[in-house]
Amino acid sequence: MAKTKQSSPNLPGINAAIIMDGNGRWAKKNALNVTSGHQRGVDVVRKIVESAAKAQLESLSLYAFSTENWSRPKKEILGIKKLIINAIDSQVPELINQEVRLNFFGDYSSFGDEIIRAIHQAEKITAFKKPKLKLNIALGYGGRKDIIEATKLIAKDIKSEKISVDDISHETIFKYLQAPINELDLLIRTGGDHRISNFLLYHLAYTEIQFSDTLWPDFTDEEFIKCLEEFSKTERRFGNRTI
Ligand code: FPP
C-alpha cells in the first residue's frame, strides 16, 4: 500500500523553537568532518521551515549558534559562517515564495561584515508585513546575555525618566529583550540531551518542552509533525486547576 504523507495540524498563533543538536555526533557516526554535519543540518532546516509554514505556526525560532559556541575551534566557526552565507544566498528566494519573514537575533558581529551585510539584505527583502511564518535565527545568542542587556536598557530608561520603576511588568521586559518573540509555546530539542543550554530563558516559563533522541541531521518533517501533533493534544494549564 502506498504510504500517505502525514498532514500537519494547523497551529496558527503558536510560537515554536528548536535546539538543533547532534550535528557533530552525526558527522562522527558517518565518518565525516563536523562541517559536513552542519551542512546536513542546514538541509534539514529547509524542510522543517516548509513544514512549519504549512502548519501555519506564527513563528519558528532556531538556535543556530550560542554565545558559548564562540569557544569552538576556529575552523568549525568559519565553516558555520560559510554555511550560513550560502544558506541565505540559496534559500531566500524560497523563503520569499513561501512568504516567510527572516529575522536574526543575537550578537553575530564577530562573524564579520560579509555575514552582517547578507543578514541585513535578507531581512530587508523578506520583510513581509503579514508573513505566513516568522523565521527567527538565534546567532551568537545567549538567554542570560539577553536578560542582562535588557536589564541595563531598563535601568538607563529609568535613569533618563523615560519609564518609571512601576512601569516594569512582564510585557515591558519582553519589549526590552532582543529575542523577537514573547511567550514561547513549544520547544523541541534534538540530539538526546535534556537541557536548555542558555536559549530563550525568560520566554520558557510555560513552554511545552519535547526532547528527541534523533540527531538533528536525521530529524525529519514526519517527526516534526509528530511533535506538533503531540503539542496540539497537550492540555496547557498555566498553573491553573482544571479538575
Ligand atoms: C549543534 O550541533 C549545532 C550547532 C551548534 C550549529 C547548528 C547550525 C546549523 C545547523 C546552521 C543553521 C543555519 C541556518 C541558516 C539556520 P553540535 O555540533 O553541537 O552537535 P553535537 O552535540 O553532536 O556535537
From TrEMBL:
<keyword id="KW-0961">Cell wall biogenesis/degradation</keyword>
<protein>
    <recommendedName>
        <fullName>Ditrans,polycis-undecaprenyl-diphosphate synthase ((2E,6E)-farnesyl-diphosphate specific)</fullName>
        <ecNumber>2.5.1.31</ecNumber>
    </recommendedName>
</protein>
<feature type="binding site">
    <location>
        <begin position="66"/>
        <end position="68"/>
    </location>
    <ligand>
        <name>substrate</name>
    </ligand>
</feature>
<feature type="binding site">
    <location>
        <begin position="195"/>
        <end position="197"/>
    </location>
    <ligand>
        <name>substrate</name>
    </ligand>
</feature>
<feature type="binding site">
    <location>
        <position position="70"/>
    </location>
    <ligand>
        <name>substrate</name>
    </ligand>
</feature>
<feature type="binding site">
    <location>
        <position position="21"/>
    </location>
    <ligand>
        <name>Mg(2+)</name>
    </ligand>
</feature>
<dbReference type="GO" id="GO:0008360">
    <property type="term" value="P:regulation of cell shape"/>
</dbReference>
<comment type="function">
    <text>Catalyzes the sequential condensation of isopentenyl diphosphate (IPP) with (2E,6E)-farnesyl diphosphate (E,E-FPP) to yield (2Z,6Z,10Z,14Z,18Z,22Z,26Z,30Z,34E,38E)-undecaprenyl diphosphate (di-trans,octa-cis-UPP). UPP is the precursor of glycosyl carrier lipid in the biosynthesis of bacterial cell wall polysaccharide components such as peptidoglycan and lipopolysaccharide.</text>
</comment>
<feature type="binding site">
    <location>
        <position position="208"/>
    </location>
    <ligand>
        <name>Mg(2+)</name>
    </ligand>
</feature>
<dbReference type="GO" id="GO:0009252">
    <property type="term" value="P:peptidoglycan biosynthetic process"/>
</dbReference>
<dbReference type="GO" id="GO:0071555">
    <property type="term" value="P:cell wall organization"/>
</dbReference>
<feature type="binding site">
    <location>
        <position position="26"/>
    </location>
    <ligand>
        <name>substrate</name>
    </ligand>
</feature>
<dbReference type="GO" id="GO:0008834">
    <property type="term" value="F:ditrans,polycis-undecaprenyl-diphosphate synthase [(2E,6E)-farnesyl-diphosphate specific] activity"/>
</dbReference>
<feature type="binding site">
    <location>
        <position position="189"/>
    </location>
    <ligand>
        <name>substrate</name>
    </ligand>
</feature>
<dbReference type="Pfam" id="PF01255">
    <property type="entry name" value="Prenyltransf"/>
</dbReference>
<feature type="binding site">
    <location>
        <position position="38"/>
    </location>
    <ligand>
        <name>substrate</name>
    </ligand>
</feature>
<dbReference type="InterPro" id="IPR036424">
    <property type="entry name" value="UPP_synth-like_sf"/>
</dbReference>
<keyword id="KW-0479">Metal-binding</keyword>
<comment type="similarity">
    <text>Belongs to the UPP synthase family.</text>
</comment>
<keyword id="KW-0808">Transferase</keyword>
<dbReference type="InterPro" id="IPR018520">
    <property type="entry name" value="UPP_synth-like_CS"/>
</dbReference>
<keyword id="KW-0460">Magnesium</keyword>
<dbReference type="InterPro" id="IPR001441">
    <property type="entry name" value="UPP_synth-like"/>
</dbReference>
<feature type="binding site">
    <location>
        <position position="72"/>
    </location>
    <ligand>
        <name>substrate</name>
    </ligand>
</feature>
<feature type="binding site">
    <location>
        <begin position="22"/>
        <end position="25"/>
    </location>
    <ligand>
        <name>substrate</name>
    </ligand>
</feature>
<keyword id="KW-0133">Cell shape</keyword>
<dbReference type="GO" id="GO:0000287">
    <property type="term" value="F:magnesium ion binding"/>
</dbReference>
<feature type="active site" description="Proton acceptor">
    <location>
        <position position="69"/>
    </location>
</feature>
<dbReference type="GO" id="GO:0016094">
    <property type="term" value="P:polyprenol biosynthetic process"/>
</dbReference>
<keyword id="KW-0573">Peptidoglycan synthesis</keyword>
<feature type="active site">
    <location>
        <position position="21"/>
    </location>
</feature>
<comment type="subunit">
    <text>Homodimer.</text>
</comment>
